[in-house]
Structures are given as C-alpha cells and as structure tokens.
Amino acid sequence: MKQSVMPAKHNVFVVSLVLLVISVAAVFFSLNAGTIKLSALTMLQTLLGYGSPEDSMVLFQYRLPRILITMLAGIGLGVSGAILQGVTRNLLADPGILGLHAGASFGLIIFVTFFGAMEGPISLLIPLFTFAGGVLAAVLIVWLAYDRHRGVVPIRLILIGIAVAAGFSAVSLFLSLRLEDTTYTFASRWLLGNVWGRDWSNVWALAPWILLIVPYVFFQARTLNAFTLGDEVAAGLGTSVQPKRLLLLAAAVALSSASVAMAGGIGFIGLVAPHLARRLVGPMHEHFLLVAALIGLVILVMADTIGRTWFLPSSIPAGVIVAAVGAPYFLYLLTKTK
Amino acid sequence: MMKKTIAIILTLISILTLAACGQTATQQPAAEQTQAAAQQDPSAAGKEAVSADPKIASLSAHLTNNLLALGITPAGSVLGGKAKDFLAHVKDRLKDTQKLGVAAEPDMEALLALKPDMIYADEAFASKDLSKYEQIAKTKVISLDKGTWRDHLLEMGRDLNREQQAKDFIDEYQKQAEHVKELIKKKIGDGTVMAIRVSAKELRVFGMGRPMGPLFYDDLGLKPAKGVEKISKAYEVISQEVLPDYDPDAIFVMVNVEDDAKKVFEQLQQNPLWQGLKAVKAGHVYFVTEQPWLDYSALGRKMTLDEAEKIFAK
Amino acid sequence: MDAHMFDKHAKQLTRFSVVKVGSIFAAASLVMLISMFLAVLHGAKELTIHTVMEAITAYDPKITAHQIIHELRLPRVIGAAVIGAAFAVAGALMQGITRNPLADSGILGINAGATFVVALSFAFFPNLPYYSLILVSFSGAVMSTLLIFALGSSTPGGLTPVRLTISGAVVAALLSSLSSGIAIYYDLSQDLAFWYAGGVAGIKWLHLRFLLPILLLAIMWAAALGRSVSLLSLGEDVAANLGMNTKRIQITGMAVAVILAGVSVSAVGAVGFIGLVIPHIARKVIGVDYRLIIPLSALLGAILLVLADLGARTVNPPKELAIGVMVALVGVPFFLYLARRERRNL
C-alpha cells in the first residue's frame, strides 16, 4: 500500500471543500441537462420558488428526485466500497466485484417474477428485496470463505465473491428469460445500472438507509483503520475483530443494496471512489471517507446525466458509463498494486 | 510502459464504443421544441377540455397508428421499431410528429414541452408514470390486451368525436377482409394455415393471440393448422422436430431481418423435413415482413390486408 | 534424465493401477454413448427405440422420423458432445496452467469477449454470414484473453491465480456492460440475450463439418500437452527444475484453451461452468495427472452437455430452455460446494 503518511489537516479540509464545490457544480450541471433547456437565471428563480408551473414541474418533479437518488446512491456506493476495502484489507474490493450486486439483482428478479411489474406502492418493497438478496450473497460469501482456524481470510473473500457473483448471475439469467417482454426489458436495463427511481417516493425509500448508515460508518473510522493494519494489529489495539467486521460488512451490504435498488446494478464506483480519495488525502478513514462519498456522488451524478442526455432519443444506463470509465481504471490499479 | 499502453487502449475502446453510440444520436429536438413550446399559450396544463382539433401525444406506437387510422396526426409519439425512429410503414405520415423517446422510457420533458391537450398511453407501459402524465394533460390509458383493435379504435373515436370515422374504417376493413378471404380461398381452398417466424436462435409458431391469430383465424376465416389452436398466446417457440406435426396446407414465413435468421432459414429450406411439408410441396409458402404484419393497430391491420391482397392477387 | 524424473513424479501423481484407469475410461465412454443414445431417442417428437435404431442402421430419407433423427438430432447430439468436451478440456488446461482451481472460460472473461464482439457485429454489420460470425466471436475471445493475460503479467508480482481471476472478472464485467449498452442502444437486447444464453439446437451437419475437425484436433493437442501441464501444476519451480520451458508450455496451453473455448462459444453461445466443474470431477475420479485428467474431462464434458441439452428440450416440450441456463443450474451448486471445499487452496 502507498504510504503518503499523515497529510496535514488543512490538506484534508481543502480537498473536501474543493470536492464539495465540484459536487454542487455537478448537481447544477445535471439540473440543467435535459430536453428542456433552462437558463441559469430561470433555474435559480424556479429553485427559489418563483418559476413558472412548467419549469417547476421540470425541476422539482423530473430532475430533482432523480438527481437526489443519484447523489444518495453515489454516496452509498462510495462508502460501501471504502468499508469493503478496509474490512477485506484489499484495495480491489468493490460491492460489484464481491458479488453483492449480483445478489441484489437476484433479489430484484425474484421480486419481478412474483409481483410481475413495478406498479405503484408495491415498488417500495424493492429495496427490501435487493437487501435480502445482498445479504444472502454476503452470507454465502462469508460462509464459504470462513475457515475455522483462520477466520475470514480477505483474499479468499474476493475469489469466492467472484464465484458467487457468477452463480447468482446465472440464476438471474435463467429467471429473467422466463419474464414477459416488458418486464424483461425493465429488468435487463436495471441490471446494467439504469437509474430507475425518479419519484419523490423513491427518494424517501432510499434516504433513510444512506443518512443513517453513513454517519455510523464515519464513527467507525478508527476501527476501519485498525482493520487496514491487519487482524493481529486490530486485535492488539483492542478491537474485537470478528463481530465488528461482520457489523461493518452488514453496513456495506445495506448501503450497496439500497443504492442498487434505486439506481440499478452500478459497479466500480465502490472501487474508484475510495481509491481516488486515498490518493488525495491519505489512508486514514476519518479523512478519506467523506472524500470518497463526495467522489462517488460526483461520478454517479455525471454518469447519469451523460447517459440520459448524450444518446437521445435513446438513453444509456448510468452503469454502462461508469463501467466504461471505471473498469479500465480498475485494471490499471490491478497492474500497479503489489 | 506496458501497463500504461494497456490502460490507454482500454480507455480508448470504452470511449470509442460510447462515442459510436452517441454519434448517430439525433440531438435536434431540444432547441426547436422549447421554442415551439414558448410560442404556445402557457395556460395551465391538464385542465382543458378536448377541443375540435386537439393536440395529442401518443405513448404507444400502436395507439399512434390508431390515431392515424382516424385521420389524426399526433403531435408527438414515442418511437417504434428498431431504428430509433417511427415504424417504417408509417414513418412518412409522421413527418411533423415530435419524437417522444422509446415506449419503455418516454422522454417526460419532451412530452411536457409539447404541451399536448391529451395523452394516450398503453397500460403495459404507463402504470408507473401515470400520475406524472396526468399532471401534463388528460391521459387515456388503453389496454391492448383487452378487446380487439376495433374496440380500441372505437373507444378513441368516441373520445375524439370521430366515432363515424372509426366505424367507416372498420366497415371498410371488413369489406376488404371478405375480398381477401375470397382471394386466399381461390389459392388454398379450405386448407389449413400456420404462420412461423424464423430468427437466428429459434423457430416460433404464431398462435391464436394478437397480432396474427385474430387476423388469420377470425378476420380471414382461415383454418388453423392442427396444434395452432392450442397456442392461445401470440406465439410459441417450437422445435424444428415438431414442424411436420402441424403440416399445414399453406405456411406464412416471417424471417427476421436483423440477425442471422436468413442463413438459418436457408438451411431450413435445405432440410428434407421442410421439403416434406404439404405446404412446401404445393408451393404455398408465403413470405411476410415484420411490419406491418406485427403491427396490431387499426392502420397496421389494414396495411397488412393490403399486403395479403397483393400476395394473393397474383 | 528428464523422463526418469518425470516417471518418479508420475508415480506420486497416479494413485490408480492401469486396470483401474482402463475401467474408469471404459465406464465413462459407455455412459457417454448411453447418454448420446438417450439424447437421440428423446426429443420434442416422440419416437420409438426401434425407429431410432432403424434410422441409424437403415436410413430412409423418405420417412419423416428418419429425417428428424438424421437431420436434427444426430448433428445436435454430436455437436453437444464435442462442444461439451471442448469446454471441459479448455477448463482443465486453464486450471492446470494457472494453478487456479476456479479457472473457467466464463469466469476468465473469454465468453464475455466473444459476446462483446458479436454485439458489435450485430449492431454495425447486421448481415454477417454464419462463418464470419464464428470468426468474429473467436477473435473476441482471443482479444479478451490476450488482454487479461497482458494485464496479469505486466504486474510486478506476475500472473498469480488471484490476479488472473480478478482481472478476468473485471474484464468480463466491462465487456458485458459495454455489450449490453450497445444492445440497448441498437435495440438488440432480446437477440443478444438468446445468443448469450446459448443453445445447440442450431447445429447442423454443415456446421459440424467445420467444428468437428478443429475441436477434435485441439482436444488431441491438449491431451498431448498433458504431461507438461501435470508438471506445471506441481508448481513452476518444479517444472523449471525438470528442465521444462514453462513459459512456452503456458502460452501453448492457453492458445489451445482459447481455440477450444472461443470456437465453442461462437457455436453455442456463452455456456459457462462446464470448464469449471468437469475438471474437478475428473481430478477427484482419477487423480492429479493431467495426461488422464484431460481425456477424462473430454468424456465427462461431453456427457454433461449432452444431458443438459436433453434436459433443456424435454423439461417443457415442445419449448426448449436455454442450455447455458441448464448447465448453470447444475454448475452453480457444484461451484459453491467447490468454493467451500477448495477454500484452503485459494
């Protein structure tokens, strides 16, 4: 691992501030991207509540909920990846690669198989189903990777995760081929990371997961630091290793499953965001967790904006854009780490 | 060195792939639309009664074609077909129609900018966003699974004060159907028929459901080949092995254009199983195109009859 | 010297006597023939054993039942057998060479590479003839393999099994994401899904004339590499100490594996898990000597795919399930079991 040793406090502060500005800029950019063009002034007026009914409808009903979803999901995926990297002590960990997304997808396919469509209020159950799928995948992975003598060995976790992901994808493919055409189209787009949640109800369904769990993780920054140094050190520092690890793992699963439920199977953010963050402010979790969350936000907001505006009259799922940029970066990282 | 090159190549591949997709995308509507929208009077959406010549947005390609059958050109419509465009057989009638994205995900903003007086939506796609449509304009939801295209056309005719046009259209269709029925009878007598679709990976038999069933077995009064009547859906995937079991006197063949289907069909034609079919021996193999044959709308059915008439008038 | 050393190792490798090995192979061949016969016998159309025997021994092109057997079932079953064997042998080679128990053409991204290029050609050259499509998807498989290995070996630590698996999984994720993006943009989703899920229904004599020689030659080549792969599977140091050119064997072995997997994927779509599951079973049955594992994998792979295809078309006749899915239903539980059992080696 790179040791850029303890960056100065103000460095962290400056980076966070710059990122915050970039995030705000990205959100504004996204707010203004769409078939209907609004001038900056109109937009500002509308945001302050003085816009025409049409403009308010565009901003508050079409664009804002979707952007909030991408913001929350970006944060969720970024932080989830940071936890997984800390817990597994592997910088290549990511909820997508570890098979959590495949589990969540399986949950979604089960949902559409039984409920047929995503109509009305029943759609609020989707995060629960994806969470159940994510937990199922996580339990399987941990169970399969668990060794009586050595506990959960991090590198094994990743290999098993890839295997479990392959398994879940196969079963999902089996189930999805039996779906009706329209449901199939929806499901296959979802699997690719199509930001699906667009209503305020979807925002309310996602927000609590992110807003409750992310602060908890921030409070656990020191535990994550200890994990990064290795189980022995963590135990030596008085951290009860296994229960804490499972708890943090559960937090990562919850964050990624909830994000994925509303934004689709988006990979690589959980990998790229913590990584860039670590390069910017160093390896201490209390420093880089916030930065990782903001980077995740910026990536997803931009990817979704590009996906829905560049390819008119069609639209490309955000997950495809993220993968197109994230996967090469991942492979680059792979060739660089020890 | 090596790593960098690989990283760069990978990134290039990804970007090129994306760019290749983006390039062909048309980006024209945005600017024009907003202008057009600005010129319209900005009265509150969704509250107007249907006027004599309402501005209609259609969120289903089939409903668009029903509107065309009533002599109404919708102001905006979702796309249909595979070429990111309107269905080929009605494209020239929709020159002035605003594109509203794909049916699975209509472009809400384009719809809003259009300021329609009325929106038609297909139940299969509309359910999730219905409340949003209703905020834009009065929205009528039609289920294509309930009733025939005649019912849909009549319902739309009533809504739009064009009931007479709808009835006339149906009467004319009926007359033409009788005519085509006679033509077909001259060729194949009382023989049984079936329709199949060949794609690269599978062979489908069209069943009693829409789009083919109602046309063949109701409107044209043809006799389904043995086994077809058991397929209540639109189609069923079958194995080539059971093709001889149906053994129809006439067979309609639709070969997919976009994939390897042509090769597959050529192989099928070489196959003694195919050559042994009654229909093939008697030369009663008729090729049909995907559109308008798959278009289960008033206009689509009418154009399909035209096609059938052409085939059997020879 | 070399040969002598090898024999010493081989004694450790082989746990079984010649008689036992012989009877295992005889049994596997018998099971393969029986499953192939069953597969010819059963199908969407009911036929009697008598008709089947007659169609094989005294073929009469005028009888429909004979035509069904001759034109549809025989090429299909033979195709399934040889492609199953090819996938299994490809997996065995990859596992031996990389010493990675989880190596498989699906997991290593080879299938995704083929699909990606096929998606590209569907979108931009929609009317490619069959042979070009096979060539195209094969080149996709080669490209993604080269990419993965270039990535794996350009790293400071070299090509460790873990690195290989991870880079394979990521390349697979990237390529399948891009193919789906293309599929969505060009409205190919359903076409591609069926291509991806795989099937041997389309295999005719025409294709077999092309597939059979390539795949059988490659399988024989693989079997000939068995001795070197065995040594390699003991560890590169051991192999190098015995005077083996490990790099050359690795490259040749991977080339053969890519030919096997690439050609098979192009013919039937992305059928995963065979290459993963079968070599493990073979190893369990016959020990760790790849001279035996490779031919036995070929037989067992043939049995698995023939039976999977039989299942795919008899579960819900006259409809046919995607064969890739059938194999996955067998493969996934086994894979999980394997992951659990093999965890000590990971």
What does this 3D model show about the protein?
The complex is a heterotrimer of chains A (338), B (314) and C (346). Helices cover 74% and strands 1% of the residues of chain A. Chain A has 338 residues and is an all-alpha fold. Chain B is an alpha/beta fold. Chain B has 2 domains: 30-161, Nitrogenase molybdenum iron protein domain (Rossmann fold), CATH 3.40.50; 174-313, 3-Layer(aba) Sandwich (Rossmann fold), CATH 3.40.50. Helices cover 47% and strands 15% of the residues of chain B. Chain B contains 15 helices and 13 strands. Chain B has helices at 2-23, 29-39, 61-69, 108-114, 123-126, 130-136, 149-159, 163-188, 212-219, 243-246, 261-270, 272-275, 278-281, 290-293, 298-313; strands at residues 56-58, 76-77, 98-99, 101-102, 105-106, 118-122, 138-142, 192-198, 203-206, 223-224, 235-238, 250-255, 285-288. In chain B, strand 1, helix 3 and strand 2 (76-77) form a beta-alpha-beta unit. The radius of gyration of chain B is 23 Å and the shape is globular. With 346 residues, chain C is an all-alpha fold. In chain C, helix 2 (18-41) packs antiparallel against helix 4 (64-98), helix 9 (205-224) packs antiparallel against helix 12 and helix 13 crosses helix 14 (290-314). Chain C has a single domain, classed as Orthogonal Bundle (ABC transporter involved in vitamin B12 uptake, BtuC). The interface between A and C is large, with 52 and 45 residues.
Outline:
The complex is a heterotrimer of chains A (338), B (314) and C (346). Chain A is an all-alpha fold and 338 residues long.
Q: What's the helical proportion of residues of chain C?
A: over 70%
Q: Tell me the quaternary state.
A: heterotrimer
Percent helix range of chain A = over 70%
CATH class of chain C: Mainly Alpha
> How many strands in all of chain A?
2
Would you report the number of β strands of chain C?
Answer: 0
Largest interface comes to: A-C, 52 and 45 residues
Proportion of residues in β-strands of chain A: under 5%
Distance between the termini of chain A: 8 Å
Tell me which CATH architecture of chain A applies here: Orthogonal Bundle
Strand order of the largest sheet of chain A: 1-2
C-alpha geometry of chain C? globular
